[in-house]
Design brief:
Elements: H1 2-13, H2 15-41, E1 47-49, E2 53-55, H3 58-61, H4 63-77, H5 81-86, H6 90-116, H7 118-123, H8 126-153, H9 155-158, H10 161-171, H11 173-183, H12 185-212, H13 218-239, E3 245-247, E4 250-252, H14 255-258, H15 260-275, H16 278-287, H17 291-309, H18 314-321, H19 323-345, H20 349-356, H21 358-367, H22 371-375, H23 380-383, H24 386-408, H25 410-414
Antiparallel strand pairs: 1-2, 3-4
């Protein structure tokens, strides 16, 4: 009884010091978890002295791999490039292109002809010029349909969605961050806030131990455990269990899995609005690593139209200009038409957005994904460097534990 009385008296004497333990532990848990979340995303580029003294956010540092995982999730589980293009109607695209094509055909032809054969073109009757314009315009629907067929039938050689997505996300690391942050923003907030709650609970245990046993090792070890366990528990609660489980009257369900419908909506909206958009797809076709194949086809088609259009005049033009000059002229016309295509294609973006319906498709299919595949879209952001985040939390907690030992509770230890 004397021992308990002395403990109680000592507790009352240092009441505020003891009560600081759960508060400090809660603060340690909160700060370490906030730091852990920040370290996942920032800084976007390496800061420090390379290669080891410094830091770059885990997701930006692994941008290529994270982007690969994202595109794999999208193409294998949500929507394939073949399905995207199968929803496009070549005739409808040709209709959408009619007005911009009408605007560029005559000026381009005039410009090239005036460059290579100014006298011939100036003496060509307007009626003949109009026949040339009309022929090119008339061939547009067939050319567009044929071009779409080429893309659909040679998808792996003409369009690489993986290259498009990976290039975009590696170039724009902030967008890559937002894909993960917006999909799991509540979970990241939970990690931060739960740090204080779990830390305070561990601090209460630490306080009770310290009341009865004041070993010098307790405070540093307790700080290390607080920093370690608050991160570890929070990460586990995000993903486990994948399916709801009833335990002692309570339902436990991984926070990320519980929000699958909401995540599907936010993720599908972001991806369809900023990443896999018709505008980006067309740009990848026109400017990406496989664009040469597409342009080679377009060039062959336009050249064919030019040859058919000028078949009667070609011998005279070639005789007057020389075969080499004629071929150079034709090549310039083709190159100019191709150069105008990316700008012209903007006219069909609105139609393509409706026809492809990427937003609703991604949302619907993501919401229906099995739990393991659904988890796979976010889990890699934590998985490989999860140990590092937990280790940083433990290190910060250990440092605070030594601060308590040598500053806050130094007098108590000295009196032992």
């Amino acid at each position: 009884m004397d021992y308990l009385a002395s403990v109680a008296a000592e507790f009352r004497e240092h009441l505020w010091l003891y009560l600081s333990m759960p508060l400090i532990s809660g603060a340690v848990g909160y700060v370490t978890n906030v730091v852990a979340v920040r370290m996942m995303f920032y800084p976007l580029e390496f800061r420090g002295i390379p290669p080891l003294l410094g830091w770059q956010g885990i997701i930006p540092r692994r941008a290529g791999k994270m982007a690969s995982i994202s595109v794999q999730t999208i193409t294998e589980n949500l929507v394939s490039p073949q399905e995207m293009f199968s929803r496009l109607d070549g005739n409808r695209i040709a209709d959408e292109l009619e007005e911009p094509l009408n605007r560029i055909v005559a000026p381009l032809t005039d410009k090239i002809m005036q460059k290579h054969a100014p006298l011939i073109w100036a003496s060509t009757p307007d009626r003949v010029k109009q026949l040339v314009y009309d022929k090119v315009k008339a061939e547009a629907p067939d050319t567009v349909n044929e071009m779409l067929d080429q893309v659909r039938n040679n998808m792996d050689r003409m369009f690489d969605i993986s290259e498009m997505v990976i290039t975009s996300l590696v170039r724009d690391k902030d967008l890559l961050n937002r894909m993960f942050k917006e999909a799991a923003e509540p979970e990241f907030r939970f990690i931060e806030r739960s740090g204080f709650l779990f830390g305070a609970l561990f601090g209460l245990v630490q306080m009770l131990i310290w009341v009865f046993y004041k070993g010098a090792w307790i405070l540093p070890v307790a700080g290390l455990l607080v920093g370690y366990l608050t991160n570890w528990i929070a990460l586990k609660m995000i993903f486990q269990p994948q399916q709801p489980r009833r335990i002692a009257g309570y339902t436990f369900h991984g926070l990320f899995h519980k929000r699958q419908q909401e995540v599907a909506r936010d993720y599908g909206t972001l991806v369809s609005k900023e990443l896999i958009t018709p505008a980006n797809i067309f740009e990848a076709l026109m400017k990406g690593p496989y664009s040469d194949k597409l342009f080679a086809f377009i060039q062959r088609r336009v050249s064919q139209v030019l040859d058919e259009t000028t078949s009667l005049a070609k011998p005279f033009m070639a005789l007057t200009m020389g075969s080499r000059s004629y071929n150079e002229m034709k090549s310039d016309i083709v190159d100019s038409v191709v150069a105008e295509l990316p700008e012209t294609m903007h006219g069909i973006v609105a139609y393509a957005e409706d026809a492809m319906d990427l937003k609703d498709t991604i949302i619907t299919r993501l919401a229906a994904l099995p739990s393991d595949r659904f988890e796979g879209m976010l889990r890699p952001a934590f998985e490989e460097d999860e140990w590092l985040l937990i280790a940083v939390g433990a290190a910060l907690g250990l440092a605070v534990g030594f601060f308590q030992l040598f500053v806050l509770f130094a007098d108590q230890l000295a009196g032992l």
